[in-house]
Design a protein that fits this description.
- By secondary structure, the protein is of the alpha+beta class.
- The chain folds into three domains: about 10-45 and about 250-355, Immunoglobulin-like; about 60-245, 3-Layer(aba) Sandwich (Rossmann fold); about 365-445, Four Helix Bundle (Hemerythrin (Met), subunit A).
- It is built from twelve helices and 20 strands.
- Strands 4, 5, 6, 7, 8, 9 and 10 form a seven-stranded mixed beta sheet that branches.
- Strand 19 (about 420-425) and strand 20 form a beta hairpin.
- Helix 2 runs antiparallel to helix 3.
- The longest helix has 24 residues, at about 365-385.
- It is globular, with a radius of gyration of 25 Å.
- The two termini are about 50 Å apart.
Length: about 475
């Protein structure tokens, strides 16, 4: 546990595991199964003004990557909205934040600070630099093509020249497809950037590719979304920037220790966005692996962890057995105040021959299974629509609506409402709208990585007693 009587704790981390441990004993004897659990991690940071318990957040760096390709000039309002949004983001930067602004075309141009490429460096935000940066953004003009990898490469160069900040974040705005760069080049650049900084990606206009934005955001621990109304873009930039600057707890890792003969099969962040962590696992000892997490603010994230469970002849029936441990650990500099960390939580397996036990589902695990099915429905609907199969699209999007309703995912229901007319969300009865635009489908598709948590059930109200008012 970090934090002690001489080092004030920089917040509190909690960890809970939700699972249904019962497995049909005969199935285990036939070769095993998987045990799935949802891991809920919540970080509570001290508020400003709480004295010694609220250490100053570490220095951070922010880079705005603004699409300034020729398509941003059609209509001209797109670039105007992007310029206003960039100005809002710059205004939201706290004093002392290292920052820069990059104009993205078929090459990347450092717009601010005005330094030669060979001496490019981030500058610290204050009243003067914020005003100078806003003036530089106002002078931007559209032109050229789109090569997102080159934008990210310049961001990597700028972040790499400033080793001090532990928190590095980029905000990318795009209105088109990555047409002036091979996909392999973009994938290679994303691999080079991974772990160095996080990146959120926002699409505007009609022609951006939701799969490309997902690729960028997923590779760089960010989120992808769309802004359908240009008037909403400044507010979205301000919100994303404020959310990013609030995340300053770094170094948290999820540690999984499993029993002999077992192994992790799935480790995936499922809330607030979906991201596969298993390919990034790092060995941390015998039967122990760790998964890094990007910076935290006051927030809750949930992870789906599935571990192989095979029954051995020595395993008893009708008794809970240890299968794995989950723990939050943190790498920090000596003397650096850290948060209070929770104890490890077990993942259990309980072999049973009671059908009413093994056939039940854990509510949280089932909740995210709904989301997996929702994503499949979205993707199948888009494929059917492209193939001219309206009935197939209706059925697939209807299933996505049903799953979104079951999850209480109102943002997705709103996006799907532009693609289909929802007659009965609970049953998935829908009609495909005759005037669907590519923007309508893209806006729903880009939200497929976003999820909602299982709604809290209201506490039952006590029955009134005689004499109560």
């Amino acid at each position: 546990m970090e934090g002690g009587p001489h080092t004030p704790a920089a917040g509190v981390v909690s960890l809970e595991v939700s699972q249904q441990p019962y497995v049909w004993a005969e199935r285990g004897a036939e070769g095993g199964t998987r045990m799935c659990a949802v891991v809920t991690v919540t970080v509570s940071l001290p508020a400003a003004g709480e004295g010694a318990a609220a250490p100053a957040p570490p220095a951070r760096a922010e880079i705005l990557l603004l699409d300034c390709s020729a398509s941003m000039g059609y209509p001209r309002e797109k670039l105007w909205a992007a310029q206003e949004a960039a100005a809002e983001a710059i205004r939201a930067l706290p004093d002392g934040t290292y920052f820069a602004v990059v104009a993205g075309r078929h090459t990347a141009e450092l717009v601010y600070p005005p330094a030669p490429r060979q001496s490019a460096a981030l500058v610290r935000a204050d009243a003067t630099t914020r005003k100078d940066a806003q003036d530089a953004v106002e002078r931007l003009a559209p032109g050229g093509g789109t090569a997102i990898g080159s934008w990210l490469a310049l961001a990597r160069e700028l972040f790499g020249g400033r080793p001090g900040p532990a928190v590095r974040h980029a905000l990318l705005l795009g209105d088109g497809r990555n047409e002036h760069e091979q996909r392999d080049a973009l994938v290679a650049e994303l691999a080079a950037c991974s772990g160095l900084f996080t990146c959120d990606a926002i699409g505007i206009g009609e022609d951006w590719d939701p799969d490309e934005l997902h690729l960028v955001a997923d590779s760089l621990d960010g989120r992808a979304d769309a802004v359908r109304d240009l008037d909403d873009l400044p507010g979205e930039f301000r919100s994303v920037t404020a959310e990013s600057t609030a995340r300053h707890l770094t170094g948290l890792r999820l540690r999984l220790t499993h029993r002999a003969g077992s192994e992790p099969l799935t480790v995936r962040q499922v809330h607030p966005t979906r991201r596969d962590l298993l390919p990034e696992r790092v060995p941390a000892g015998d039967r122990c692996v760790e998964f890094r997490t990007p910076p935290w603010g006051d927030e809750t994230r949930e992870y789906l962890v599935c571990v192989a469970a095979s029954r051995t002849p020595q395993d008893p029936v009708d008794r809970s057995l240890w299968l794995a441990d989950l723990k939050i650990v943190r790498e920090a500099a000596p003397g650096e105040p850290g948060p209070v960390l929770p104890p490890a939580r077990p993942v259990l397996v309980h072999w049973t021959r009671h059908r009413d036990l093994y056939s039940a589902y854990d509510p949280k695990v089932a909740h995210y299974a709904h989301h997996d099915a929702l994503v499949r429905g979205l993707e199948a609907g888009r494929a059917a629509q492209r193939a001219g199969d309206t009935e197939g699209a209706r059925a697939a999007w209807g299933e996505a609506v049903r799953r979104a309703h079951a999850m209480g995912n109102e943002p997705m229901l709103q996006r799907l409402g532009d693609v289909v007319r929802i007659i009965d969300a609970a049953t998935g009865e829908v009609e495909v709208r005759p005037d669907i635009r590519p923007l309508d489908i893209n806006s729903a598709m880009v939200l497929r990585a976003h999820s909602t948590m299982l709604p809290q059930r209201p506490e039952p109200r006590p029955e009134p007693r005689d004499g109560d008012a």
